[in-house]
Amino acid sequence: MRRWIVWSVGLLAYIVAVLDRTTLGVSGLDAADRFNASPAILSTFVVLQIVVYAGAQIPAGLLLDRFGSRAMIVSGGLLMAAGQLTLAFSESLPTAIAARAVVGLGDAFTFISVLRLVPYWFSERQIPMVTQLTGICGQLGQVLSALPFLALLGAAGWSTAYLSAAAFGVLVVVLTIVVVRDTPRGRAQVVRSADLAETFGSLKTVWLRPGTRLGFFTHMGCQFSITVFALMWGIPYLTEAQGLSRGTAGALLTVSVAAAIAAGILIGIITARNPHRRSWLVLGIMASNAAIWAVVLALPGPAPLWLLVVLIIVISIGGPGSMVGFDHARTFNPSRTLGTATGIINMGGFIASLLVMQAMGMIIDAAGGYSFDAFRYAWAAQYVIWILAAVAILIARRKARRTIGDIDESKYLLEFFDDRRE
C-alpha cells in the first residue's frame, strides 16, 4: 500500500506540472490581449518554455541521478509555483516570458523524477503498466486547465486563475516533503560528482546505447502533435478556425485525456507482452496521426464536430505512445544512469514540439492572422517531423537489432536489481 501512496503523491506533482504547462495554451487569446502579443510573439511564450524544458532535460537527469526524486520534485514544484505567481500579477511582456521560462525549468525537473520512483517501488512486471499510468494519468492536469482553470479565468480573471494554480503547486510541494521517499529504504544510490570530461563521457555512453536513440525518436514522433495542440494552438484552432465555443473546445480537450488513459492502458499491456514489437506499434501510431490530420486539413471548410472528436482521440494516442520510449531507456540502461537516459529521451518530443509551435506561429503571422487557411497551412508543418522521426526509428531499430547480440542486457538488469536492494 505504501508504494501506491508514494506514487500517488508523485503523480499529483506531475498533474500539477501538466496543469502549469498547459495553462497558457487554454488562455492564449487572453494572453494576447493582456500583453498585446501577435501570434508569433504568443508562440514565443510557449516555445521559450519548451526550449528551457528540453534544454534542461540532461542537466535535470544528471541532478536526478545525484540527488534523487524527492529533492527534484520539491525543487520543480517551487519553481513552477514561483513562475505562475509571477504571471498572476505581471502585465509586462518580458516578465511574463521569463516567468514561463521558470515554469519550463520546474516542469523539466518533475516528470523524469516521478518516473524514476517507479522502478524502485514496483516489481519488474508492474513497471511498464505503472509507467504508462504515470504518463496518462498525469494528463489530468490538462483537464484541470481546460475546465476549472478556464472557468475561473472567465469568471474571476487572469490574476485569480494563475494565483490559484500557484497555490495548488505549493500544496503538492508540502505533500511531497511529507510523503515521498526515493526508495523503500530511503535515498537511492548516489552517483558521485564528476568533472566535465566524465560528464560528457557518460552522456556519450548513454546516447550510444541503441535503446536510448530508439527511445529518443519514439518520443519525438509520437508526442509532439498532441503537445502542440494542448499547449498552444489547439484552443485557438478550434475556436477561431473551426468556429467552436470556448466551452466546447475545452470539453474536447477532456476527450483527449480520456482517450489517452484508455490507450495507455492498452499500450502498457501490449508492450509488456510483446516487447519486441514496440517499434511497430510506435510507427503505427505515427501513421495514424498523419492520416487523420490529412483528412481534416483536406476539407475546404470547418470539419464536422464528430471528425474533430476523432482527430483529438487519434492524436491523443501519441501521448501514451511516446511513453514506449522510456521503456526502451529502462531496458538498455542501468539504474545509476536511468535519470540521464530518461532526460535524453524526454527531449525528443519537446524539441519537435517547440519547432512546430514556432513554425506555426510564423506561418499564421505570414498568412494574415487567425484564419481557417492560416491554420491549415500551419498544421501541415507537422509532416516534416513525422518523416524525420520515422526514418530515424527505422535506422535506430536496425542498429539495435544488429548489435543486440553484443549487448549483455542481463548485466544492466543485474545492476538495476542490485541498486534496488541497496
UniProtKB/TrEMBL annotation:
Write down any Gene Ontology CC term: plasma membrane
What's the chief localization of this chain? membrane
From the Swiss-Prot or TrEMBL record, state where the protein is found.
Cell membrane
* Annotated Gene3D superfamilies: MFS general substrate transporter like domains
- Has the keyword Transmembrane been applied to this entry? yes
What domain of life does the native source organism fall in?
Bacteria
Which sequence ranges are marked TM in the entry?
Answer: 41-64, 71-90, 96-118, 130-155, 161-180, 214-235, 247-268, 280-299, 305-326, 338-357, 377-396
What single Pfam family name could you report for this chain, choosing any that match?
A: MFS_1
Q: Known InterPro entries for this protein?
A: MFS, MFS_dom, MFS_Efflux_Transporters, MFS_trans_sf
Q: Is Membrane among this UniProt entry's keywords?
A: yes
Major facilitator superfamily (MFS) profile domain segment(s): 6-401
The way it spans or sits in the membrane comes to: Multi-pass membrane protein
Please provide the record's keywords in A-Z order: Cell membrane, Membrane, Transmembrane, Transmembrane helix
Q: Which GO molecular-function terms appear in the entry? A: transmembrane transporter activity
* PANTHER family assigned: CHLORAMPHENICOL EFFLUX PUMP RV0191 (PTHR43124:SF3), PURINE EFFLUX PUMP PBUE (PTHR43124)
Tell me what this protein is called: Major facilitator superfamily transporter
- This chain's source organism reads Mycolicibacterium chitae
Q: Taxonomically, what lineage is the organism?
A: Bacteria, Bacillati, Actinomycetota, Actinomycetes, Mycobacteriales
